[in-house]
């Protein structure tokens, strides 16, 4: 006959949460959510949109440079503006029969302001920038920060910096 061996520990009985404990937990989560919303509200969304657009513009400029080197055809990023502010940009390929879009048009997000003195930045087959004097900049503004993208003519190098106003 098999007998059970007594153990040193007794099994604890699990019990459910009481209504009071559940209410207190929900209240604490609500407080934390309210604090997070105040800290990371609409200004953070605007800043995130501006940073995302800046990154996309830098990537498109680098893509234009790489495509110009790879194909031997000039590639450029054309800026469409309205009342002095840039509203979109498009990666273009300069072909003998006429220019063609090499990628989709990217619109500037709502709440973001983009300005530049140039209407396009063109890369030649060596990866250098043509048609610009020395270097150019694009400024991307949000409500809490701004970014400056600097393009160096001789090398086609880009530099993106974030500043707080």
Automatic annotation (TrEMBL):
SUPFAM superfamilies: Pili subunits (SSF54523)
Transmembrane segments: 16-37
Origin: domain of life: Bacteria
InterPro entries assigned to the protein according to its UniProt record, in alphabetical order: N_methyl_site (IPR012902), Pilin-like (IPR045584)
Alphabetically ordered keywords of this record: Membrane, Transmembrane, Transmembrane helix
Protein name as annotated: General secretion pathway GspH domain-containing protein
Key word tRNA processing present: no
Xref: NCBIfam families: IV_pilin_GFxxxE (TIGR02532)
Signal peptide: none
């Amino acid at each position: 006959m098999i007998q059970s061996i007594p153990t040193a520990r007794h099994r604890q009985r699990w019990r459910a949460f009481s209504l009071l404990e559940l209410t207190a937990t929900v209240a604490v989560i609500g407080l934390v959510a309210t604090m997070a919303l105040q800290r990371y509200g609409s200004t953070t969304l605007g800043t995130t949109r501006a940073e995302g657009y800046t990154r996309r513009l830098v990537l498109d400029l680098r893509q234009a440079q790489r495509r110009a080197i790879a194909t031997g055809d000039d590639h450029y990023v054309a800026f469409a503006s309205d009342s002095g502010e840039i509203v979109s940009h498009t990666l273009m390929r300069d072909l003998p029969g006429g220019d063609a879009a090499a990628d989709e048009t990217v619109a500037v997000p709502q709440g973001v302001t983009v300005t530049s003195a140039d209407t396009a930045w063109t890369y030649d087959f060596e990866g250098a920038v043509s048609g610009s004097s020395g270097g150019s900049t694009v400024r991307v503004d949000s409500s809490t920060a701004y970014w400056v993208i600097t393009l160096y003519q001789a090398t086609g190098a880009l530099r993106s910096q974030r500043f707080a106003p």
